[in-house]
Each structure stands twice: as structure tokens, then as C-alpha cells.
Amino acid sequence: MVLVLLATAMGFALATLGRHTSAALARRPRTRWSGNSARGLVLEIVDAPRPDQLMLSSHIGAWLAGEASFWDPRACVGSGNGFCDGSYTLGWGPAIAVLVTVTVALTVGAFTAFRRRDLI
Fold it and tell me: Tell me, what's the pLDDT at 96?
């Protein structure tokens, strides 16, 4: 139920920021799928450490499963011949904190844009 409420609030915020509800909602499924792929590609190009921590889908999966384990091959670069475990976990606590923070930021931005655009 919490995931549905978060998704609804994000959808409202994106529709409000996009101004036209039908256009914003029609764009959302395509943006989510292609945006996730594009974000992953950009993170790979810039060689970002632990790119899964920057993906909302990873946070959703970690929150629903309790925790998620990821592996970063860049963690072991330059470690010499010793053992290096490039795995890391993302727990449900930080995951829900990120999801709520993103939702609140989008919603506050939407209300600010709405107020500036339509009420003044």
C-alpha cells in the first residue's frame, strides 16, 4: 500500500510539473523504462562507483525484499593480488528513506510550480 501511495504521489507530481495531465501520464511508462536504461548507460560511461545505488528500481527492490545485494567490479580495481569482494548491500531502511525523499521533493516542487503558475 505504501508503494502505491508513493507511486501515486510521484505520478501527481510529474503530471503537475508537466502541466498537462494526459501528456505527463502517457509519457510516464515509456520514461520509466527507457529512463532506467539511459541512466544505467550514463552511469557506465562516467564509470560511477556503485551505480545501483543511484537507481530508484534498486531501492524499490531492496525495500520490498528487505535488502538487495549488488556487485561492483570497479571496487576491486587497483587492490593488488589480495582478496577483494566487490559486493555491497542496500537495506530496506535507506531504500525507503530515498524513496520518500524523492517523492517529497517532487511533490514540493509540483506544489511550488503550481502555486507560482496558477495562483499568482
Answer: 92
